[in-house]
Amino acid sequence: MKRLLTKVLLITMVIALVMSVGIGCKATAAATTAAAAATTAAAETTAAAAETTAAPAKKLTIGRVMFEYGHPYQQADMKHFKDYADKLGVDTIILDGKSNPETISNNVDDLKAKKVDGIIYQPVDPGSSDTISKASIEAGFPTITFFQRPGTFVAPHVRIDEAKTSYEMGALAAKYMAEFFPGKPIKLGLIDISTVEYVVINRSDTFIAGLLSVAPDAEVVSRLDGGGIRDQSYAAGQDMLQSHPEINLVYGTNADCCLGALAAFEAGGRGKAVDGKPVTEMFISIDGSEGEALKMIDPSSALKITMALQPLYNSHVLMDTILKVVKGDIKITEDIIIDTPDIILDAYAMSIDDIQKFITVDYLSKVDLKAELEKLKK
Fold it and tell me: pTM of the entire structure?
């Protein structure tokens, strides 16, 4: 009996020991599983965070082909464009089109090879623009044009509404001519950029129309090609003065056209003013650059009015527009024109501070116009 009790006691102890070991194993396994799950979750969170850090949202790169690096407007526009891109966190690649259709086309091809996200370029003529834009967009690159639109190919375009302002400036010129040269018919000489159809239509022809709207007896007696280049315009100005000394109004279709012709007239003893009033002819320009402003404030210069392009405003509109096309807010082949305005700088109606503010903000000029005016008085 005693042996039986001992055996039962031993068996009970063994069973209890086995059960306690089993329960301990299960508890440890459960704890290990929970810890492993927590570790895995933490690891996944860390991995996700690491992945986010390693692969941020793609930074956009916008390519742009400027019409001509050497021009004051183009230089100011380019600087504002870069600054605005930096502010937006956008990279840029900017190339010089050298005002040549083939160079502009090759530059657009270079931008495509660099896999930019969007392209902006300023064409020389509608025909070459058709080819460039079509090839670029069909290759999948959002592409917009500036200043001059493609002839037939439809794509987003940013246009300076120069026709309207040129017309207004022509009418304003006629009013001043009636004041300065009463009773004398207007004899107009144009220094044009005849190879750029856009300029001829939107700057020259509309200026003439505005002039005739107020002075219907005005006559265009000379229309020469300055090519938008200072030296060429100087030579054109010499020819104009020799062939048509009766000219009493000269209109240059960009800053270099006007300033080049004005220098030629000055060399011939013309292009002068007394206390701001033109003596023999009045000069009118386009661009609003520093060089024009210096002549506008000079009481002895016949240049007193210019139609000013706005490089700061235009550069921002261009960037905003291409980003909308890249993001799909504007369709890549949408028939849309975004207009930007020019303004008229009129030395007879504006203060020197007004002109100073414009060239400082838009053309990034460091010139102090009041200081320059004081120098002229000495």
Answer: 0.81
